[in-house]
Amino acid sequence: MSTHNIEQQRKDWDTYFMDIAYMVATRSRCPRRHVGSVLVQGKKLLGTAYNGAPMGAKDCLEAGCMITEEFEIQLVGSQETVVKKQRCIRTIHAEQNLLLFTDRADREGATVYVTDQPCWTCANMLANSGIVEIVFHRSYSKDSEKVFSLMEQQQITIRQLTNYEPPEQAVTDVNS
């Protein structure tokens, strides 16, 4: 096989690191969504994390989801609209776990690859973490506008991989 053919088969860095994030997500035991995140400095992998209950605590598969409902007023044009959000409060998000289990010095100037666009809380935490870029695959429309605005204010690049296909063995059948 020629060197040219090998190079054509080789994955680009975004695909490579997002594949790893999806494989990390397979560790999640959340019945609603499996999320994985990866911390990268240059081309060096520095940490991985997934969403789930705190270590040693019963997870959602064992004890059920702890769903809370929140209501938020959003301005659509000149019309105020009430948006209902449901979220599980048993779960620590993948991005939060990544920040808990990596060092600040490693995060300075780094990129986070995450299977899903960060929620508002995770975006706030990432904005203070020292990272300079967030790359995600699946959108999270409930917080999208706020998250993109925050990242622009913080001069953190955030981008979606739109033509990406997760590895077949990492695709899970969970609710969104």
UniProtKB/TrEMBL annotation:
Its cofactor is Zn(2+). SUPFAM superfamilies: Cytidine deaminase-like. PROSITE patterns: CYT_DCMP_DEAMINASES_1, CYT_DCMP_DEAMINASES_2. Keywords: Hydrolase, Metal-binding, Zinc. Coiled coil: none annotated. Residues 12-161 form the CMP/dCMP-type deaminase domain. Pfam families: dCMP_cyt_deam_1. Belongs to the cytidine and deoxycytidylate deaminase family. The keyword Zinc applies. It comes from Paenibacillus yanchengensis. It comes from the Bacteria. Transmembrane segments: none annotated. This is Deoxycytidylate deaminase.
